[in-house]
Design goal:
The chain is an alpha+beta fold and 392 residues long. It has nine helices and 16 strands. The protein has helices spanning 23-39, 51-62, 68-77, 82-97, 121-129, 145-156, 256-264, 269-273, 296-302, and strands at 2-13, 47-49, 103-113, 134-138, 174-185, 198-205, 208-226, 231-237, 243-250, 277-286, 288-295, 326-328, 332-339, 365-367, 372-378, 383-389.
């Protein structure tokens, strides 16, 4: 089970009082941003994204800008002011390192143009202390800058994300490149057995199906339903029981886009997740692999983040320790997800227990044979990845 994503923001040379958010408030804020982010992605194909990866970079940018740009980022991310960012992401960095049973690598790096350029001293302190970011000088005008950054990204995502930068993404006018890499690998607490995986029909729409590999298991999972949202919920835990995949399955074959829109409009998904109960469920779900490249120059303005891309007045006045005017010239995220039967090494044991025979309660059926939403959560319900599976 592997997930990874990276976010890039190259930043080019242009021709209060403390507020602490508790973990529940922070998770809610991330979930809301994730829903809005997902709602702006391609609605006709399968996608995967890490809004949290985007938040890491945007939060750092927020600490280096002022004016409308600053307000746009704070409002979009759901933070009241800068100290809330500092306390939240410092806590988040510690939280990510402590999750048991999975591999979760979060890496931040700030590339700075060689030749005497430096981050603003306050921003440099935040980058290191809050975001645990590495700082590296580089000559963006050299032919090898993009390749060097790409290799670092590959190393942090287990070679899953390649060629994040094209050779023309940076040049001699580039002053900063901010990169976040997020890599997740987990094995199911209740693994699926490969011998139960076989091709079954998946509904692309009400009248069209395609045969795809579907996994099956009848195990204890966290399950629930929402009549208000019109969905079934299934939460499958990873080893360590501190991270899980939540699958949100619409009742209607063509209901996914409406569900995502309701979430983006403020439906409280996490409140529903809190009510899920562990019970035996007959689960059928696709195994799949998705790679997505997202142009943040298209997505972020739809979320209200526009000014940082304006060459005339970006608001990025607190990034460098110089008077040069900067703007964000490019924003891209690449993400990868693979979902399969993979689990811990299987073992078997036999035994017999004699019990009085009684009629078992009916087992809920969770058959993901139509487009659905999925998210990767930790035990605080912080969203790491979000996506939609549509079988094409």
């Amino acid at each position: 089970m592997r997930f990874c994503s990276v976010l890039l923001l190259p930043i080019f040379l242009k021709a209060v009082e403390s507020s602490i958010m508790d973990s529940k408030t922070l998770s809610s804020s991330i979930a809301k941003f994730s829903a809005k982010f997902c709602n702006e992605l391609n609605k006709s194909t399968s996608v995967v994204a890490s809004p949290l990866s985007a938040e890491y970079i945007l939060a750092l940018v927020a600490l280096g800008c002022e004016g409308p740009a600053h307000e746009e980022i704070l409002q979009s991310l759901g933070f009241p002011e800068d100290n809330a960012i500092r306390s939240s992401f410092s806590s988040m960095s510690s939280q990510l390192k402590s999750i048991k049973g999975i591999t979760l690598n979060v890496a931040n790096r700030v590339y700075i143009q060689d030749g005497g350029y430096k981050l603003n001293s306050a921003l440099e302190s935040d980058a290191v202390k809050v975001f645990d970011a590495g700082l590296k000088t580089i000559n963006f005008g050299s032919g090898g800058a993009a390749e060097e950054i790409n290799k670092w990204v590959e190393s942090k995502t287990n070679q899953r994300i390649k060629d994040l930068l094209t050779s023309d993404s940076v040049n001699s006018d580039t002053r900063l490149v901010l990169v976040n890499a997020l890599y997740f690998k987990g094995t199911w607490l209740k693994p699926f057995h490969k011998m139960l995986t076989y091709d079954r029909p998946f509904y692309l729409d009400e009248s069209t199906t395609v045969d795809i590999p579907m996994m099956n298991a009848k195990e204890d999972f966290f399950y629930g339903e929402s009549k208000d949202l019109g969905v079934q919920y299934l939460k499958m835990q990873y080893e360590g029981e501190e991270a899980s995949m939540l699958v949100v399955l619409p009742e209607k074959v063509d209901g996914l886009n409406d569900v995502i829109k309701k979430l983006a409009d403020g439906y409280d998904l996490l409140a529903d997740v809190e009510t899920l109960e562990e019970t035996k469920v007959d689960v059928t779900i696709p195994k799949f692999k998705i790679e997505t490249e997202i142009d943040l120059m298209e997505v972020l303005p739809k979320l209200g983040i526009k000014t940082i891309f304006d060459p005339a007045n970006s608001g990025l006045t607190r990034m460098l320790d110089s008077d040069e005017k900067l703007f964000v010239s490019k924003g891209v995220q690449k993400a990868f997800i693979e979902v399969n039967e993979e689990g811990a090494e299987a073992a078997a044991a036999s035994g017999m227990v004699m019990m009085m025979r009684c009629m078992p309660p009916p087992v809920p059926i969770f058959q993901a044979d139509r487009p659905f939403l999925y998210t990767i959560l930790d035990k605080q319900h912080t969203t790491y990845f979000v996506g939609a599976f549509r079988a094409h």
